[in-house]
Specification:
Protein name: TIGR00725 family protein
CATH class: Alpha Beta
Largest sheet: 7 strands, parallel
Pfam families: LDcluster4 (PF18306)
Number of domains: 1
Shape: globular
Radius of gyration: 14 Å
Low-confidence stretches: 1-8
């Protein structure tokens, strides 16, 4: 790898998309839209690598010809959804949620689940911006969470916040 391509990879924004593994059809559609728009915007889409919102975001990123990173809870990379380009088997169980948000420059949360809530809390604790789409009310959470009304608004905000490091 050349020094130039290495620097380009290091500067590429990484946006995590988090949400329930047991997602409903609306959440899946939102995740696909966000993943596609993030990919078109040049970001690497980071997820927990499994089903539900994670699967939808990775599928959307592929539609946008983007790159996906899946940080899996178990020890078998083969458990990743078929749209994960780079699968990392962490063996950390739910502890991998910390890796998902630490890796990201910003987080988009879609839907509600205990795992989603833990990722939002970890991101806020780490000072990462969080965009909420069909998720928790920002008034119920800590500072650093901003609402979005559509996949486009969520992706645009996440890309902007990641770029400025807010």
């Amino acid at each position: 790898m050349s020094e130039q391509s290495s620097q380009a990879g290091a500067s590429r924004r990484q946006i995590a998309v988090v949400g329930p593994e047991e997602a409903d059809e609306r959440e899946l559609q939102l995740a696909r839209g966000v993943g596609r728009l993030l990919a078109v915007g040049g970001a690497v889409v980071v997820t927990g690598g499994l089903g539900g919102v994670m699967h939808g975001a990775c599928e959307g990123a592929h539609l946008g010809e983007g790159l996906t990173l899946g940080l899996l809870p178990g020890t078998d990379r083969r458990t990743a959804n078929p749209f994960v380009d780079v699968a990392v088997a962490t063996g950390l169980g739910q502890g991998r949620n910390l890796l998902v948000v630490q890796t990201a420059d910003a987080v988009v949360a879609i839907g509600r689940s205990p795992g989603t809530l833990s990722e939002i809390a970890l991101a806020v604790r780490l000072g990462k911006p969080v965009v909420l789409l069909a998720s928790y009310s920002p008034e119920d959470l800590l500072p650093g969470c901003v609402p979005a009304g559509s996949p486009k608004e969520a992706a645009d905000q996440a890309l902007r916040l990641a770029a400025v490091g807010v």
